[in-house]
Amino acid sequence: MPFSQKTLDFLSENRFRDNKEWFEAHRKEYNELVLNPMKELVLGLTPTIYEIDDALICEPKMNGSISRIYRDTRFSLDKSLFREVQWCSFIRHKGLYHGWPAFFFEFSPYGMRYGCGYYEASPKTMECVRTLILEQDKTFKQALKSYKSQKVFTLDGAKYKRSRYPEQPEEIKNWLDRKSLCMMHSNDDFELLFSEELTEVIADAFMSLKPFYYLLIKAEMMKDET
Predict the structure, then answer these.
(1) Starting at the edge strand that comes first in sequence, how are the strands of the sheet with 102-108 ordered?
(2) How many other CB atoms sit within 10 Å of the CB of residue 96?
């Protein structure tokens, strides 16, 4: 069962009501409209994910590869209970800040995003990435070539206000001057979200990011060796 407009309507209303009793009374709708289609998506993507890296975690369940609908409010000023953004992610080792690179897909009533990279890379990881770039390591050359040959993803991640490598070409500074790295595609193409082709489109997109992912994994290996 694919996602539908009813999926988005449920997420919007649940977020608006923000009430545990209402959610429990409508849990069957949540399972049918949100959780079960997400499980199907994870299962459909699993062969591609394992082809890229069989160490990535693929668990079609909440607190596995699928996000919870409840928010963690312990450290947030926003005490609302529910989120309207839902996502699945595939990562070697679970962790949010300064974790490993992940493949991800997320959607909300406002659009969807998918790609590969970090929620927030550690400074040490980024030092290793920059070393690979400056040494023109083959993994970076392959990642750069792959990036330049496509029009789906944009390189994302906060940049330093002032370039640390002003002598480098612009296309290289675009990588070197970032505090974190992520390949991201964003759109509000709900026709794709609701279609039977969603899994195939996301799988092909993830596969195209394999050179970029391998660059990040090599940086992680370097980090662990130092």
Answers:
(1) 86-91, 102-108, 111-117, 182-187, 154-156
(2) 9
63: which 2 tokens? 């607190």
Q: How far is 114 from 143, CA to CA, in rounded Å? A: 18
- pLDDT of amino acid 99: 81
Amino acid at 192: L
Residue 103 phi, psi dihedral angles, 5° rounding: -90, 145
Residue 123 Cα to chain centre, angstroms: 20
| DSSP letters spanning 135-157 | TT-HHHHHHHHHHHT-SS-EEES
Give domain limits for the chain.
5-225
Residues, the chain, total? 226
The residue assigned the tokens 């789906």 is 152
Pairing of strands 102-108, 182-187: unpaired
**What burial letters (b/e) apply to 124-149, b meaning 16+ CB within 10 Å?**
ebbebbbebbeeebebbeebbebbee
223 pLDDT more than 70: yes
Give pLDDT tens digits for 40-91.
999 999 999 999 999 999 999 998 999 999 988 777 777 899 999 999 999 9
Mean confidence (pLDDT) of the chain: 94
Query: Which fold, 5-225?
Result: BirA Bifunctional Protein; domain 2 (3.30.930)
Q: Is 84 helix (H, G, I), strand (E, B) or coil?
A: coil
Mean pLDDT of 111-135: 96
Q: Are 24 and 51 in contact (CB under 8 A)?
A: no
Integer Cα distance of 220 and 225 in angstroms: 9
